[in-house]
Here is the input.
Amino acid sequence: MRKTQAKKLPLAPDPKFNDKLVTRFVNNLMWQGKKSVSYDIFYSAIERVNKITGDDGYEIWKKALANVTPSVEVRSRRIGGATFQIPAEVRPDRKVSLSIKWLIRYSRERNGRSMADKLANEIVAAAKGEGAAFKKKEDTHRMAEANKAFAHFRV
Here is the structure.
C-alpha cells in the first residue's frame, strides 16, 4: 500500500435492536441510498422469520450470519508463471463482510414476492444450515481443503 489506510467511519447502531451489525447489514442491503426502505425490508424480514420459526427473529438472524461466516478462503498467487489457489485465514472484518454479502446476494436470487420474503426465507434456511449462502460457505471451505497442498506458498 502506498498511502495510509482510510479511516473506518464509526457506524451508528440501528434504532430497533441498537446493534451496529444490523446497520452494517442494512447498508449492504441498500440500493440508491434508500436507507429507510432498506430498514423496512430488514425489519419486516425479521418479523417474518419470527412468524415462520416461532423464535426471536433477531437471534435467528444472528445464528444465520454465524452459520454463513467463512473461516478460510483461497487467494490467488502467481509463483513462477503459474497461478496457485492458496488457502488462507479470513480476516475478522472480511468474515462478517462476506457473510452479509452472501446472505443478501442469495436472498435476491431466491424466488418470492418481496425482498423481505426472500430475505426471511434465506435467513431461516441459513440458520438451519441449508440454503445457497450456507452452500457458498461450504464450497469455499471445500476449495480451501482441496488446495491445502499449496499452503506452504502462504505469505
